[in-house]
Structure formats: structure tokens, C-alpha cells
Write a structure and sequence with these properties.
single chain; 253 residues; 7-stranded mixed beta sheet; 5-stranded antiparallel beta sheet; globular; BPL_LPL_catalytic; biotin--[biotin carboxyl-carrier protein] ligase; EC 6.3.4.15; nucleotide-binding
Length: 253
């Protein structure tokens, strides 16, 4: 694995939020690529403004990256981030057919979410991508209880010893550097092909909420831009954003 990025690793007993810490460092113009790990967050944040519940023993890791690629490539960040996470978990825990990436970047095991990714960025006017922060939360030891959501953790499917958060962070750092290098080299086709292999099975029944609209259909993969392809009763939708849920054979989430 070709790794051209050097991460400066920082590990803290506790932080309010690893993403907020990285953003603070970015605003101070500390132009170092950081990998920030903490044993405990006191104010973690999830995607779409949701609270992220993080029992002790789970992974809280964020990267501050100063990109050399253009803002047009930002749309591929969820895909390379989730690939890095998937690859790290697979290397440390083994391969499982029920381990899948849900578009664009959630990690599921048996349709239970075990990890989420929060990506934040800053673009200088008019279109200069200045910095990126990629936050990764992985449930290693415990699955928090969230009303209305199916949540799991690595402990649910690993029979032996669980990997430490430090080891998981190290592996994610290595794979993230690899996939960032692929993106820098214009290998979006490879990224898309690799992601599709690890994503939900084609033909899965989904419900997708995008804006104020809700769609039900069949998963057809992603297009060349990374948009979700959903075959509804009337047309093939190309969705650039949205929240999706897998449906069982009875049509339930």
C-alpha cells in the first residue's frame, strides 16, 4: 500500500470533540496533517446536527487534512473515508459478508450501524479548498441505545479479542492516506468500483429521504459522480444527498 501522507498523531484522554479540535487547529493555520484520537469526548457531534452518543471504549478519531486536490473532488470524500474504515476493520477483524457500507459512508453489520463519519471543510472564495476535517466514530465495545435506530458494535460479531482504538486508528490512518492518494491521482473509477464491492447488495429495497421528499425503490448502485441510483416505480433517480434506510421483505425499516 503506497502511503504518501504523514499524519502527526495526537492522543488525548479527553476532548470536547475531535472534529472541533481539528477545526480549531485549522483556523490557527497549523498546516500539519493531524490524526487526533481521544479516549472520551464530552461534546461529540454526529451528522445532520444529530447528537453522537459515545460510550467509553469506542473510537473517536478525526483527521485534519490540507488537500492538494480541487474542490470538485470533495464529493468523493465520504467514499474514500468509508473505504478506509471498512478496510481497517476488515484487516483487523476479518471479512464478513454482512459488513457493508451504506451510502454514502455509514458502516453497517447485519443492517445495524456500527460507525458514522462526519466531514467538514473550508473553502476560500471563490473555490479554493483550504482544509478538510474527517471525523470517524466506531462502536468497538458498546452499542449506544438510540430510539428508532438499529445500532451495533464490533463486539457483536468478533469472537476473539477486540482491537484497541489506537490500533484501529493506526490502520484507518494508513488506508485513508492510500485512498487520498488515489483521489489525488484521479482514480475515481477505482474508488467507485471498490466502494460498490463493499456497499449494499444491488437490488436492496430502500427508502430514501432527500430534502422534503421520500422515495421508495430498488438500489442500483452509484453513478460516475457518486450519486445514489434508485429505481422507483416510475424512473431511475440520481440522488446527490439523502438519508436511506434498508427495508426488509415486508417493507419495514
Amino acid at each position: 500500500m503506497d502511503n504518501k501522507i504523514t499524519w502527526q498523531v495526537e492522543h488525548y484522554p479527553t476532548l470536547p470533540s475531535t472534529n472541533d479540535y481539528c477545526i480549531e487547529q485549522a483556523r490557527l493555520k497549523k498546516k500539519t496533517n493531524l490524526a487526533v484520537l481521544t479516549d472520551s469526548q464530552t461534546a461529540p457531534r454526529g451528522s445532520r446536527g444529530r447528537e453522537w452518543i459515545e460510550p467509553t471504549g469506542n473510537l473517536a478519531l478525526s483527521f485534519l487534512y490540507w488537500p492538494s486536490f480541487s474542490v470538485e473532488k470533495v464529493g468523493w470524500l465520504p467514499f474514500i473515508s468509508s473505504l478506509a474504515l471498512f478496510d481497517a476493520v476488515t484487516e483487523l477483524c476479518g471479512s464478513y459478508s454482512d459488513l457493508r457500507i451504506k451510502w454514502p459512508n455509514d458502516l453497517l453489520f447485519q443492517n445495524k450501524k456500527i460507525a458514522g463519519i462526519l466531514i467538514e471543510s473550508h473553502v476560500e472564495y471563490p473555490d479554493i479548498l483550504e482544509w478538510l476535517v474527517i471525523g470517524i466514530g466506531l462502536n468497538i465495545c458498546f452499542a449506544p441505545v438510540v430510539v428508532g435506530r438499529e445500532i451495533g458494535c464490533l463486539r457483536d460479531f468478533i469472537g476473539g479479542d477486540l482491537p484497541s482504538s489506537s490500533l484501529v486508528a493506526q490502520k484507518i490512518s494508513e488506508y485513508l492516506a492510500f485512498w487520498i492518494d488515489c483521489l489525488c491521482q484521479g482514480k475515481e473509477a477505482l474508488i467507485r468500483k471498490s466502494w460498490l464491492k463493499k456497499g449494499l447488495p444491488l437490488g436492496s429495497s430502500l427508502t430514501v429521504t432527500s430534502g422534503n421528499k421520500k422515495y421508495i425503490g430498488i438500489y442500483k448502485g452509484i453513478d460516475e459522480k457518486g450519486f445514489l441510483l434508485l429505481q422507483t416505480e416510475t424512473e431511475l433517480k440520481h440522488l446527490s444527498a439523502g438519508e436511506l434506510f434498508c427495508l426488509d421483505q415486508s417493507g419495514n425499516k
